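User: I'm putting together a teaching handout on how multi-component assemblies are represented. Below are the sequence lines for each component of a complex, exactly as they appear in our records. Could you produce the 3D structure of the whole assembly as structure tokens, so the students can see both representations side by side? Please keep the chain order the same as the input.
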Amino acid sequence: MGGNRLDATDYEIIKICLSGQQEAFSELVTRYKKLIHNVIYNLSGGKSEVSDLAQDVFIRIYRSLHRYNPDYRFATWAIKIATNVYLDWNRQNKMESVAVENIAEISDNRSNPEEQHLKDEEMGRLRKAINELPEKYRLPVVLFHQQGLSYKDLEEVLNLPVSIVKNRLYRARISLKGRLCLEEE
Amino acid sequence: MRFRCNRYRNLIMRYFDRTLNREENNLLKEHTDGCSNCRTLFDDLQRIMEGLEKTVQLDPDPELETLVMTRIHSLPETGNGKQGGFIIALYGSLCLAALLLAASLPTLILPGTGILDLISRGVRDLYSYVEMARIARFIYEVLALFFSQTVSDVVKAAYNDFIFACFAAASMVIGYFLRPDWGLKEMNK
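Assistant: Of course. Below is the structure of the complete assembly, with chains in the same order as your input.
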């Protein structure tokens, strides 16, 4: 049964779950836990509640399995639920800035410590600037540039027409540039 | 110049959308080589986008599957959304039935006071007016026929009206049994 599940498509696993076999859902969790974790991490700006939020996302996915439309990719649908879970959580909890030192950065082994520190500082400022963006601009930036979603995916996840998504993404880019260049001055 | 730069700014945005074709790419490069404002904008955005897209993919909590499945096993058996929808529909129907019962309750407890009584009284009044008009017409016809027609014509007309009156009486009797305070009691007050 385990071997069969590894070959099964997402929709086949969902049908097994809906037939009453709860354990089949663990396969979906295994497949998408890294994606969901990183979506929540990037949307929340690295808050400590990421793990709890990721669990909440999967619980909501489980409860909504009967609503899944196989015409769409499961990953996109899961990201949509993750985005909604994050938005619900954000409304209840005031978003606080994350200290630059707590943000996970990339370690480039080719850089010397000083260069690496400068890179980390730049990434920290970028992360801070993203966190300070209004939600309606932050979501498209994170989902498009950090999660690699297409405009079509964004249309589905954000439930907005492509024209509006594009407009918000463009404004977000200009806003980020304005904030970062102002800091440099 | 500004108009042209606006056009190229749109191309810059589409560059970061990864939707430029080769010709547009060349056009953009040619313009940014000659326009310092657009060059600055492009370089700044490129630095930002590279920073965004260089974000590391973190590994989640290794216990995430166990934690999720433990929570799922403890969920109550609520069934799927269709059952939930049925429950909502049933609840809505019960609320509507309760509302109708509440509207008709005064009628059941105190006849003559509820909404249904108002409706039945209106219908009865309308019927009685129609019936009075019919009786008046009957009398007129009888008199008219008496003075202008033969006896058989008068009898035929009276017979037609008598049949109609029987139907009217039958409906009133049926109405009396269905609505105890309808018709006779009201008329005898």
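A couple of points students might notice: The radius of gyration of chain B is 43 Å. The first helix of chain B runs from residue 2 to 17.
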